[in-house]
Structures are given as C-alpha cells and as structure tokens.
Amino acid sequence: MQQTQHPGHWPAPTARTPVRATVRLPGSKSMTNRALVLAALAAAPVRVHAPLRSRDTLLMAGALRAMGVDVADASGADWQVTPGPLRGPAAVDVGNAGTVMRFVPPLAALASGPVAFDGDPRARERPIGPLLGALRALGAEIDDGGRGALPLTVRGRGALAGGPVTLDASGSSQLVSGLLLAGARFDKGVEVRHSGPPVPSQPHIEMTLQMLRAAGARVEASAPDLWRVAPGELRPARIEVEPDLSNAAPFLAAALVTGGTVTIPGWPAETTQPGDALREIFARMGGEVAFSDGGLTLRGGGAVHGIEADLHDVGELTPTIAAVAALADSPSRLTGVAHLRRHETDRIAALAAEINGLGGEVTELDDGLEIRPRPLRGGLFRSYDDHRLATAGAVIGLVRPGVAVDDIATTGKTLPDFPGMWASMLGDAS
Ligand SMILES: O=C(O)C1=C[C@@H](OP(=O)(O)O)[C@@H](O)[C@H](O)C1
Ligand SMILES: C=C(OP(=O)(O)O)C(=O)O
C-alpha cells in the first residue's frame, strides 16, 4: 500500500494490479429512510428488511424515536418499527441528512406538541424554505425566526388539514418527497404542484411514489410537476431495502480505472434508484457491463473515455463520475447539476478545487463541470465533510500514488465501513 506525506489523513491505497472483487453493498440510504418514515406513519408494525445502518439512517431512526415511534433491532439486522401516536416535545438532530431535514418536518406537523429541528452547520444552509411555506399553507405552525432555514420548531397539533399546495422544488426533489410521504395522513391528503425551474432527481420522486403505492397509498402522478396522495391508511407490513446503487459508484469506478472487474451482488433487475444509470454511464466511459446470476459486473477495458452528460436526474453520482473523468483519455462536460452547490458541500466548487489541486484542469460551469484530463500527481484531496467527495478522492488514489483524503470517516454518512470495504476490494491488488 502506498503511504503519503500527510499524517492524520487517509492514505488512499494504490492498485498495483487490476482490481478483481465482489462487493456486497449495504442497503440504500434513500430507501431505508423512506421505509422508516412510512413505517412510522403506518397503522400496524412494519418489518424493514436489510436496512442501511449509517449516520443518515441512524439519525432518521433517532428522529422517529424522539417522536414516540419504536424502532427496534430485529433478527438478521432488520428493523422492527412499531408506530405510535406522534408526539412532542421532541428535539431532532438532522445531522447533514437531506432526507431527515425534509422528510421529518411534515411528520412533526402531525405530532401533538412541538418538535425542534437543528443539525450540522451545513444543514442550516441547505434549502428547506419552500417546504416550510408549503407546510404552513397546509395548516402547520412553524417557528423559524423568518430564516426559512434550520434551526426551527414545528408546533404540531396532532393533525394537519392538508389539501392542494404549490412550491418551488427546483432546489431539491426531497421537498416534494417529504410532503408526499406524509400526505396520506393529512386530513385531506395532499396535492403538490411544482412551479419553477425543473425539479432535479426525478428517480427519487418515482421512488417515493412507488414505495407509497407499495404501502397501500392511493397516488396519482398523471401530469408533469403534479402529484396527489389521497388520505388513507398505510399498511406496508414488510419493506425490502435494495443495495445502495449510488454507493456502488466508487467500487464500479475502481474496476473501470484499473482495468479490473467488480461484481455487485443483488443489483435489482428493475429499480427506481438513480444509481442504476451507472450501467449506461460507465459503459459510455469504457466499461463493459453485464448482468449474471452473481449480480452486475463491470469489466474495465483499459481505456477510460470522457463523457458529455446531463446529470440533472442523477446528481448524486456526479462526484464519482468527475473523478473517473479526470482520469480519462478525452475531455468531459457534466451539466444540469446546479443544485449540487447546496448539497453536503458546494460539490461543483469542491470537485474543481480538489482535482485541480492534484494538477487537473477542471472549469466550473454554473450548472456543472468541464474536465480536461491532465497527468495528476499525489497530494491532499479534501472531503469538505462530504462522503461522496471522500470516495471520489479514493478513486483517483487508486491510480495516482500519494493521494490522501483528509477525513475518510465522513463516508459514514451512508457507508458504515468504507475504508474496510475498499481494503477488501483491493485484496492482493494493493
Ligand atoms: O430523496 C432522496 O433520497 C434523495 C434525493 C436527492 O436529493 P436532491 O433532489 O436534493 O438532489 C439525492 O441527491 C439525495 O442524495 C437523496
Ligand atoms: C445529496 C446527498 O444526500 P442528502 O440525502 O443529504 O441530500 C447524497 O447522498 O449525495
């Protein structure tokens, strides 16, 4: 394993030979946190099978427990969720989890008593204002000191009128998902209309609709930017969580950039997860992708090509794609992701700064990145407390000796043991 000159930082291991591995991924963050919310609103206990246990999902479980929901460990690392009347007073730490800060306030509006929300400093800068406006229009009382941001208190009164509401969700699809997930429990259900520039991350809205339907909700999405959830009971009984395909990105990228082979078992044949787009994106960048009984396999062909891609629908894949693009044999142009500037960090600025810090030539666009591959050198790759920046640094480090990531522990937001998984993937190759 290559060591670096940055004590205290994680020396990204270099692959001496092509990576050959099977990587079993933990559950999807997005599905786990939707499952927990739907279970908390259900009419009977719910088994959540194969959930992700990471910072974001433990924060969600903690938020629900604080409001009176029992989230208990069950056999096989499942969670058994026993809903109860939602209640305050309660305090919710959202950390830097977009799903917690946008999915839980609508539940708090249904609680009897005040629920206070705060989180990491960055969480106070992430968009939530349109959700607060929508909840007020649906009958909720919220104290946010006029900031339209965290910290805030939702003064629940045990029920919410619900009905039609319009908001601008161009900042985050989670503003829509949050209203829809709780909508079946509003007295009149909810009719959400988006008005503004296009909503990003459509697959995540589709995931919300599909999981609501599976839980027994009556859902309508027959026109663009308009979604309806009828009032009614939720009875999901059991929710299966798929492997996290967005977290497959750095592992598949490892096969691509080292000319190796990585298999991800349990890759669903059909899914709403945006990570499924990696099959096409990495094929365009030079990988050979195939399903087999063992799962999905990506075989690197040696050459890595640049790509022009609008990533509006799959924004959370951008950091890994940018890392691969920086190692390609031709330039790339990644667009449609202005909203990434208000993710865990300003991902557009951070990716440009860190790749350029290693000798790259990356230009920021308003809504993306232009990446001209240059011979990269070792050096410090800062993560900005962003799990996907940290794993992007790890990908570059596989093929450029001497890269160090400053805070690899930040990967715990969505992966409980990234360094261990990375070391196992490398095996004898490091
Ligand atoms: O609903 C979800 O689970 C998510 C939606 C997306 O958010 P944005 O629409 O804010 O990008 C995505 O980036 C995030 O990682 C997870
Ligand atoms: C944007 C992300 O997370 P969050 O759920 O905090 O928005 C992400 O995981 O890439």
UniProtKB/TrEMBL annotation:
Annotated GO biological process: amino acid biosynthetic process; aromatic amino acid family biosynthetic process; chorismate biosynthetic process
Active site: E316
Keyword Transmembrane helix included in the entry's annotation: no
Domain of life: Bacteria
Thylakoid listed as a keyword: no
InterPro entries for the chain: Enolpyruvate_Tfrase_dom (IPR001986), Enolpyruvate_Tfrase_sf (IPR036968), EPSP_synthase (IPR006264), EPSP_synthase_CS (IPR023193), RNA3'P_cycl/enolpyr_Trfase_a/b (IPR013792)
GO cellular component term, pick one: cytoplasm
Keywords: Amino-acid biosynthesis, Aromatic amino acid biosynthesis, Cytoplasm, Transferase
Residues holding 3-phosphoshikimate: K29, S30, R34, S172, S173, Q174, S201, E316, H343
Enolpyruvate transferase domain location: 15-420
Ligand binding (phosphoenolpyruvate): K29, G98, R126, Q174, R347, R388, K413
Enzyme Commission number: 2.5.1.19
Catalytic activity: 3-phosphoshikimate + phosphoenolpyruvate = 5-O-(1-carboxyvinyl)-3-phosphoshikimate + phosphate
Metabolic or biological pathway: Metabolic intermediate biosynthesis; chorismate biosynthesis; chorismate from D-erythrose 4-phosphate and phosphoenolpyruvate: step 6/7
Quaternary structure and partners: Monomer.
PANTHER family: AROM/DEHYDROQUINATE SYNTHASE, PENTAFUNCTIONAL AROM POLYPEPTIDE
Family: Belongs to the EPSP synthase family.
Function: Catalyzes the transfer of the enolpyruvyl moiety of phosphoenolpyruvate (PEP) to the 5-hydroxyl of shikimate-3-phosphate (S3P) to produce enolpyruvyl shikimate-3-phosphate and inorganic phosphate.
Protein name per the record: 3-phosphoshikimate 1-carboxyvinyltransferase
Native species: Allonocardiopsis opalescens
Lineage of producing organism: Bacteria, Bacillati, Actinomycetota, Actinomycetes, Streptosporangiales
